[in-house]
Amino acid sequence: MQAAPLPAGTPKDPVGHRVDADVTFTARFQRTDIPDPTGTYTVVYGAGAHGSLKGRTTLTLDAGTVLTAAMIPTPVPEEGYVFSKWAPVNP
Hints:
Number of strands: 4
Distance between the termini: 38 Å
Oligomer: single chain
Strand order of the largest sheet: 1-3
Shape: flat
Number of helices: 0
Radius of gyration: 17 Å
């Protein structure tokens, strides 16, 4: 029996995934010999509905910078809600 692909919105990391149907997680790999990028980029964090963010929400970083926990604002949910995940959007 072949498992169905992940439905839209399913977490990409199996940790925390609640199993209620057949599911397949695929390990993906990235080349390591890609040249380092150059320049600077802007990282923007936004709060979705029913919450806010505590901390810096806009960063200007050199290409190749690896984000650390200290660079990420804290999600603060409204009463009755919990933070569920970050959703990256690349323009």
